[in-house]
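Hello,

Our lab assistant flagged a job as stuck in the queue for most of the afternoon. It eventually completed. Since we weren't sure the result was trustworthy after the delay, we are filing this so someone can double-check. Below is the sequence as submitted and the structure that was eventually returned. Let us know if re-running is recommended.
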Amino acid sequence: MSFTVPTDRIVQVLEKADYKSLRMPLSVAGISFNFSAAVVGTDRSSDLVVVSDTTETSDAKILSQIEGLARALDAVSSVRPLTLVLTGTRPTTKTLDAMASVCRVLVTDGGASEDEIKQRIAVLLPLELPPLKSPITDIVGLMDLTDDEDPLALRFLEEAANGTEEVKQLLFDLVSAPFSDDPDDEEDV
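-- returned structure --
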């Protein structure tokens, strides 16, 4: 099948996330499957993702193809998770349920922008975390502490100079102190 604009956009988003495009028709266990597109995860993902446009192919045909592909993957003992990304008109709930019984199904809007596509297929994409604060500036901020500001943080900072085990022991002592039978132990911590 030829790529359509929504299918192209979906494949481009997946390729940017290090998925590799596969040639169509897809062949598994000697059986050919003709979807709009297919990609396979490389480093972080082992998913096999097939894309189908419901404006080009009937829901019944897509269901038949995905069930056959799932059976073929089982026959060759594949460990790849199978995901179907649908674009175009949304199939009926009954059809979606039947598809979901053999694979993960993600539905996108045919005219969706790249950001909307990313939201719809986010489960397939690497997690984007916000930038971290610089650890150096956080430590410098702690070094300026006085006993009056945060005595507990100051104690942790002092113990950090003695090593990881000392910090762990201080944390253990602080957490276990309220449960101690000896009230004098609480004074020491």
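-- support follow-up --
The delay was a queue issue, not a problem with the job. The result is valid. The beta strands are 19-21, 26-28, 31-33, 37-41, 48-53, 82-87, 104-107. The chain has two domains: 5-124, 135-188.
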